[in-house]
């Protein structure tokens, strides 16, 4: 693994690799790497000669200062994980470039760019996190401009983000293939997330109920209406602490922010299953647990 902290040094190394005919894949991350990120890096290494992994907590995509301050920063542990993975994939090589810029390096000038995504950002995360997707688009475009990768890798857990990035590619017309990678889950079903490390042991113990509820919702979808499934999911998680009081000490509870069932491509809420017969339907949820905001997705 090679580490880069400046745009110029990374660009030079990427240019050298490309001049040798090597293909370059990009895995944008905010660090605090877990198996989900490592699965993106693995996939990227399968499909490219060189993989650039960015580790950058992007301040302009946080609409909540406290969330930004609390976001885990574990650069040394992240680099160790990348080195270990590189040794498994291609021992003794320098095929993974870790890009760890400062905020000043990424944004030497105040950021004025804004991106808009129409109906795609008017649902779910959009209204809850004003400015979030524009901030994501700014940093992703900056990374695209620096690396000019052949392919870029994003996880399906951030389902709406993935649709936004695909739309960004259409808007800016870059010839970059966006590769979507499946959610990686812990053995108990909890979707892996950098935020999980902020959960208390009690909260971590009940967190798998999110996925379990979504899996049951997928079964219900075979015979229940969209609205009934939506209501059931919100009620089940919202009343979890009452039904399972012994597992929820000290006021611990799920506070579901939204659960939407949307067309898998347009992300517009559907009213009937037939509305998504062609594109498929997905259910997207955001839940607060123990002061930590968790998201998850189920395909119907
Ligand atoms: O998904 C993330 O971790 C971030 O939103 C991304 C894509 C790395 C941009 O900061």
Could you walk me through the main structural features you see in this protein, from its secondary elements to its overall organization?
The protein has 300 residues and is α/β, with parallel strands linked by helices. The chain is built from twelve helices and nine strands. It folds into two domains: 2-181, 3-Layer(aba) Sandwich (Rossmann fold), CATH 3.40.50; 194-299, Pantoate--beta-alanine Ligase, Chain: A,domain 2 (2-Layer Sandwich). The chain has helices at residues 7-19, 35-47, 65-70, 75-89, 103-106, 125-128, 132-147, 159-172, 201-206, 209-220, 226-238, 240-243, and strands at residues 2-4, 24-29, 50-55, 96-99, 151-155, 177-181, 254-263, 281-289, 292-299. It has a six-stranded parallel β-sheet with strand order 1-4-3-2-5-6, with helices on both faces. The chain has a three-stranded antiparallel β-sheet with strand order 7-8-9, covered by helices on one side. It is globular and about 60 Å long. The protein starts with a strand and ends with a strand. The structure holds pantoate. Pantoate (PAF) binds next to strand 2 and helix 7. Pantoate (PAF) binds at residues 28-30, 58, 61, 136, 139-140, 158, 161.
